[in-house]
Design a protein that fits this description.
The longest helix is centred in the C-terminal third of the chain and has 21 residues. A hairpin with a 6-residue loop joins strand 1 and strand 2. The protein is mainly alpha-helical. About 60% of the residues lie in helices and about 5% in strands. It has a two-stranded antiparallel ribbon.
């Protein structure tokens, strides 16, 4: 299993854009310096967030701003925008169990319900956390 860092990079970028997007020209190069990630990775993440309607991106001249209030952006929305199969990657089943083994031929159906519950619970949890809460946490951390 592999847990991607795309979501945390996206959140980092969204905090930065919220804080500086109105007063500075926020570009992929600037976000790259802040996140420590390759500018191409940043551009791919920004493109996914733009496609979801979270960001407005001016390609070429640069500049990125939020398109909706922080309360309307939750972690599930961000996660699904940048990595649509993240929940399946996090809790998935192995692809080639033996069809000749009693456990192997039944493991997918056995795990379907409990893994589905885990994914549903995680989705509910991610939906309950907004960027407003995260930005408030950022402000608290900066002020201490």
């Amino acid at each position: 299993m592999h847990i991607s860092t795309k979501c945390s990079i996206a959140i980092h970028c969204l905090i930065f854009i919220n804080e500086y997007g109105e007063s500075k020209r926020v570009t992929s190069e600037l976000l790259s310096l802040s996140t420590g990630c390759n500018p191409v990775t940043i551009r791919n993440i920004m493109s996914a967030l733009k496609k979801d309607g979270i960001l407005s991106v001016k390609f070429g001249t640069g500049g990125t701003t939020l398109c909706c209030p922080l309360e309307e952006i939750n972690l599930y929305r961000i996660c699904m925008a940048v990595e649509p199969d993240a929940l399946d990657k996090l809790i998935g089943t192995h692809m080639a169990p033996s069809p000749f083994c009693p456990v192997g031929k039944n493991i997918h159906s056995v795990l379907e319900a409990p893994y589905g519950k885990i994914r549903d619970d995680l989705k509910i949890s991610l939906e309950s956390i907004t960027m407003k809460e995260i930005v408030d946490g950022y402000h608290s951390a900066v002020s201490t």
